[in-house]
Amino acid sequence: MNATEKEEREYLEEIKEKLTLAIRRIDGDVRQASDELREKKQYIHEQQSGMDEADMVAAEQSINRMAFTGEAAVARKRKLLKLGQSPYFGRIDFVPQGKEKWPVYIGIYSFLDERQRQSLIYDWRAPISSLFYDYELGEASFVTPAGPMQGTIELKRQYKIRDGRMEFMIENGVNIHDDVLQRELAKSSDDKMKNIVATIQRDQNAVIRNETAPVMVIQGVAGSGKTSIALHRIAFLLYRFRETIRAKDVLIISPNKVFADYISNVLPELGEEHIPELIMEELAADLLEHQHPFQTFFEQVSMLLEKPHPAFIERIRYKSSFDFLTQLNQYLLYVENNYLVVKELRVGSTLVPLPFMLAKFKTFHRVPLLKRFALVAEEVRAFVRDATKRKLSNHEKNVIGEAIPRMFKFHQVMELYRDFYRWAGKPDLFRLDHRQRLEYADVFAFIYLRIRLEGMSAYDHVKHLLVDEMQDYTPVQYAVLARVFACRKTILGDVSQTVNPYSASSAETIERVFPQAEVVRLYRSYRSTMEITAFAQRITPNPNIIPLERHGPEPAVLHFGSEQEELQAIKGLIADFKSSGNQSLGIICKTLRQAEQAHRALQAEGIFLLTEESTHFKEGIIITTAHLAKGLEFDEVIVPFASARSYQTEVDKSMLYVACTRAMHQLTLTYSGEVATFVNS
Ligand SMILES: Nc1ncnc2c1ncn2[C@@H]1O[C@H](COP(=O)(O)OP(=O)(O)OP(=O)(O)O)[C@@H](O)[C@H]1O
């Protein structure tokens, strides 16, 4: 051990000591708070009879305050305990111009020596911590609340501290990030998504710390860290704007419950509370007030995979186009200009003249059309009241209330939605599914019409919206999101990983809906070995992808005489996996039917079947579909039934690409008959 390392180890012990003391102090505070709380409750209980309402309110407030202080102390203690395990991961010695050297240790949370009023550990989100991510040795600057601060970085170190013990320390080198990154990526993954604070890369840091973009669109290749970055960005914004945004003010829209569960660890690991999340279908059901049953996205994709009917594809294709949104908007104009015929109105002996009626409709022209009638009716009632100089009877009120909506051709948004297809000259493109539900492609278009015609304010409280898997949402869906969520947004995805190529959106499409968006493109891929990335590139090429230099076995493509033989061989692969040291294995099929078939054959091997109904991510060996595996990753992936018979269409190709890009270290495809042509191309 050299002198520097010895010094650092001693310093680590010192910090741990200080953390232990701080924890003890908190324990004391918590004990005191709980004693006081008990005493206060006792006092109130005894004095209750003599207290008036104001006393009771004051007592309740003081109890709440005490409880809050107690809870805050407990939360702080939890953070300090975690810091005790791994207090910091980086250090820079920064010398601001004309000032003394400033050693800055950076950790997952901040730690202040309260007695000396000195920061011992800086939160990774603090302004000064950006130096660690953005610069090597030499000149550097960061932005403080008082303006930019220039200086020089004289030293940069990285540490891996686990269970309070220093595992390694890396000094100054130009590639210090790469060394640690390589070690991190070579590890096996056994669990849910993890935080990456110690190895955030410069381009990723720029996205995380962007404070200005009203809409941030991250288009990144498979494994480029999009989801990780987006979650770190939320943690950053919660820190930076802690006075105005709380965890409960953020909303994550995820593709499914398993994914939501898979990512649910990251923010708590970063010390933030749980963030509310919804899956797209839940949002849709909520916006439809649970009144219109509809097909799910999974069901739509399953139909495309199992029975790809041309008319069904045509409906999806049309409703996923930007033109469709334009036509809906044109139709709304047409409705305004043609379906509302304002007339004069006779109420008893009073005539409400046409100019009055027109003027009132004009006054409310910004109000959604179907909401205007009630407002105009109020005005008309006032007019008649003034004219007759008496109160109106209920009958007269009702006459007015009913007569005005009658000036409009339709009453239900569903009638208008059907009419849209007649107007567009495409009546065949609207169909309910075999269970009389809306097809998935219609859900957001119908919601869009509802919002435009009836208004909506259900999600005004959301201050930041995160949308993952953006490629799977259509322009109409984005138009709905834009209207429902007026807040800032982070939208991320990869157009190569669409599960439905007929309805895929690229960053460019999203830019058309959000012209104010800042688009960032990420090409470095961190997840897979170069061999796996090269293999996946043969399925869906992307010349821009930059795989991180990390090697592993070549992906294997194994041929068998029959499906039985194939499944028998997979049992052998599972046994190999169990003795390999790898911790997670994903067996990823094209369809649920295939996954169920494989599950039946492999059940004895302790495999968990993940389906659309699953709500939790499972560790170990999982069998699932490519659609559900999207966003997840495994040390090892097996793709069964990778035959030409099974993988034929564009949708199939997307599925194969998604399945292969889930593998971090090892990938095996098995098939019987002919191998899928996408694999050979
Ligand atoms: N800077 C980094 N340091 C360490 N690991 C990283 C970094 N960036 C990404 N990773 C790792 O790369 C893997 C892929 O990250 P993530 O799932 O966020 O990517 P993604 O772009 O959302 O992937 P996909 O679109 O393929 O689902 C994860 O294991 C993540 O921890």
UniProtKB/TrEMBL annotation:
<dbReference type="GO" id="GO:0003677">
    <property type="term" value="F:DNA binding"/>
</dbReference>
<keyword id="KW-0067">ATP-binding</keyword>
<keyword id="KW-0547">Nucleotide-binding</keyword>
<feature type="binding site">
    <location>
        <begin position="220"/>
        <end position="227"/>
    </location>
    <ligand>
        <name>ATP</name>
    </ligand>
</feature>
<protein>
    <submittedName>
        <fullName>AAA family ATPase</fullName>
    </submittedName>
</protein>
<dbReference type="GO" id="GO:0005524">
    <property type="term" value="F:ATP binding"/>
</dbReference>
<dbReference type="InterPro" id="IPR027417">
    <property type="entry name" value="P-loop_NTPase"/>
</dbReference>
<keyword id="KW-0347">Helicase</keyword>
<dbReference type="GO" id="GO:0016787">
    <property type="term" value="F:hydrolase activity"/>
</dbReference>
<dbReference type="InterPro" id="IPR000212">
    <property type="entry name" value="DNA_helicase_UvrD/REP"/>
</dbReference>
<dbReference type="Pfam" id="PF13538">
    <property type="entry name" value="UvrD_C_2"/>
</dbReference>
<feature type="domain" description="UvrD-like helicase ATP-binding">
    <location>
        <begin position="199"/>
        <end position="529"/>
    </location>
</feature>
<dbReference type="GO" id="GO:0005829">
    <property type="term" value="C:cytosol"/>
</dbReference>
<keyword id="KW-0378">Hydrolase</keyword>
<dbReference type="InterPro" id="IPR014016">
    <property type="entry name" value="UvrD-like_ATP-bd"/>
</dbReference>
<dbReference type="GO" id="GO:0000725">
    <property type="term" value="P:recombinational repair"/>
</dbReference>
<dbReference type="GO" id="GO:0043138">
    <property type="term" value="F:3'-5' DNA helicase activity"/>
</dbReference>
<dbReference type="InterPro" id="IPR027785">
    <property type="entry name" value="UvrD-like_helicase_C"/>
</dbReference>
<dbReference type="Pfam" id="PF00580">
    <property type="entry name" value="UvrD-helicase"/>
</dbReference>
